[in-house]
Amino acid sequence: MLSSQLKFPCAKKLSHSPYKYTEFILAKSTTNTITIMSCLLQLLSFFLIISSAASIQTPKHYVVYMGSSAGETAESDHLQLLSTVIPREERERISITNHYNHALRGFSAMLTDDEASELSGRNGVVSVFPDSILQLHTTRSWDFLDDNSNPKLNHGSYLPHKSTYDVIIGMIDTGIWAESPSFKDEGMGEIPKRWKGVCMEGPDFKKSDCNRKLIGARYYNVMHASNGNNTTQMRVDKSPRDTVGHGTHTASIAAGAIVANASYHGLAQGTARGGSPFFRIAAYKVCSEDGCPGSTILKAIDDAVKDGVDIISISIGTSAFLQPDFLKDPIAIGAFHAEQMGVMVVCSGGNEGPDPFTVTNAAPWIFTVAASNIDRGFHSKVLLGNGRIFQGSAINFSNLTRTETYPLAYGKDIAAKYSPIPEARSCYPGSLDPEKVKGKIIVCFDGFPVVSRTIKKLVAEDAKAKGLILINENDESAPFDSGPFPFTEVGTTIGYKILKYIKSNKNPSAIILPTVEIPGIKPAPVVAYFSSRGPSVLTENILKELPF
């Protein structure tokens, strides 16, 4: 683009070229020596401008890690260090975004690549790395695991050990929804005097939302996202309120209070509770819908240790294929220093399974956990017109009954005009003929991984289908929640039997029944299909991920 803006007396644009290439026409005559020299000088100037433009660097958000804390470090010391690498004419950039001074030492700030490189060589600096954006790793289970720390009494209550009231778990996530019954403080004593944290207020969150169960809540409103050479500030609500749901979910799993008569729209009725229902909770909101900046996670770990938590829980991570080494990993760095100060850090291993070498957060000092199943399934049966019944997996709340069946059709047989067969057989958006779909239950393969089950369901629903049977060629997946739309998922063995029925019958029909809970599923527990597997790319000799 720069070359198209420069004008050379000895150059002309090729009018026939769509790319606006520039052709330099040097005079052949010896009498045009001056013209030749002029052209060469302009050409040299052109490349100097290009070189100068390439050398201009855009400041990005960096983390400057300086090792263990040796007591409180004044922010002014870090500002002084910054002033030695940032030019005087840009002194407005001499500011710190996050200051780490309790569990570890360091700070985060806006730096160019050259400034970051220069800082990395200074005494006392362990590493300097770009602020990466990490992603979220998104009732009967604890009874099934038979957690001995919370023995169940005959009358259905739980007998807490006195010391469990004093354990504080810091949840670093998307915040918390304080009004959930999982965070009620009924029966809990006074907050431990060693607690030094705060309950920050926001437009939709008051100090009174904290109690003897939810004893602290923080949010961090200065967050940056680095993307290549660009850094943009992320939008974050100035409140600990969880508008995503992930933080509330993980907090209730770890330490949710006992909630009787819990269910999901009538499914899985019983008593819900967290793994340690009498632990106290402190919430640290570091994420938005855009992600979770590593510099902010590091700040939350530093604050949590200073506040007095005993355990830190983090269900956040990067892709297994983009893992930095431990000296550039904000979670690994923060967890290391938290452990040094007696605070256990528990992290999720990721959801990129079932392939090996996909586990994240696997530093030796982190307690890394995987996802697993329990002995309960959610099944939705398929009844074919010939009387055969097949069991699928799903969560649907449809009102269909056995009394009426609907025409059954395979996606590729009801394809829209000119649609490729692979797309139609997979319910790819725009691949089906709405007139042929309307009023039918359709069968599709779970092909095209980039097209989620949610989108496939919407494709069928928008075309006025009566239901969707999805054939999962991996034969394993977590049950999909389709709401009131009739949906079920089957493996390839059952799927091909259904397709054989369609092919061999002139008027095939079927019905998809609402979901029912099936107890006693075996084997259980086993690591969930989607859960990441080890060993770690960084520590192949350490095998440690536990199902949870």
TrEMBL record:
Q: Which Pfam families match?
A: Inhibitor_I9 (PF05922), PA (PF02225), Peptidase_S8 (PF00082)
Q: Name one GO molecular function term.
A: serine-type endopeptidase activity
- Listed Gene3D superfamilies: 3.50.30.30, Peptidase S8 propeptide/proteinase inhibitor I9 (3.30.70.80), Peptidase S8/S53 domain (3.40.50.200)
**Every Peptidase S8/S53 domain range:** 166-537
A Gene Ontology biological process in which this protein takes part is: proteolysis
The UniProt record lists the keyword Glycoprotein: yes
**Annotated PA domain residues:** 406-480
Record key words, sorted = Glycoprotein, Signal
Q: Identify the residues that the record assigns to the Inhibitor I9 domain, covering every copy.
A: 62-137
- The answer to whether keyword Signal applies is yes
- Please report which protein family the annotation says this sequence is part of: Belongs to the peptidase S8 family.
Name of the protein this chain belongs to: Peptidase S8/S53 domain-containing protein
Q: What is the lineage of its organism?
A: Eukaryota, Viridiplantae, Streptophyta, Embryophyta, Tracheophyta
